[in-house]
Amino acid sequence: MEFIEWLGVNFIGLFEAGAEVFKGFISGIIPLLIVLLTFTNALIALIGEERVNKAIRFSSKNIILRYSVMPVLSVLLLTNPMAYTFGRFLPEYQKPAFYDSAVSFVHPVTGLFPYANGGELFVYLGIANGVIKAGYSQGPLAVRYFLAGVVVILIRGIITEKITLTMQKRRLNSAEGGN
């Protein structure tokens, strides 16, 4: 009988704790996310969607820009998962590398731009809370996360593009009866 009573109290306690977290989100992070998303959409509207697309097309022509600027802009402007649609500006052999870069950036972006990937925000906030409890500021962590993310996506994009090209050459050679 005691177990059933304990289960009832603790079961509802789980939902009460969840409700408290939810109330914190409503008064804290959700308004921030809405304002940031509104700002980004307003910025795109002011610049013009065609100009944004032109900038993306320009960045797709250079390997460094293709796997640094292009994924960053796609994640910031379109958020996850729409960010991957910027791959439409690339030839087929570059799409896997762009996807690898963009998907690798949706976590490091959350410190500075939490609206870009709300699903990863909980992971970042968990890390940030530990940093704050250790006596450090969350700001430098967010900036370092972002910058490290840009370096990582650049490396991943270049390597994935090279791997994709190698695999396509092998497939072409085997289809032609070569080695």
Automatic annotation (TrEMBL):
Stretches that traverse the bilayer: 25-47, 67-86, 142-159
Keywords carried by this UniProt record: Membrane, Transmembrane, Transmembrane helix
GO cellular component, one term: membrane
PROSITE patterns in the record: PTS_EIIC_TYPE_5 (PS51107)
Keyword Membrane in record: yes
Superkingdom per UniProt: Bacteria
One GO term (biological process): phosphoenolpyruvate-dependent sugar phosphotransferase system
Name under which the protein is recorded: PTS system, glucitol/sorbitol-specific IIC component
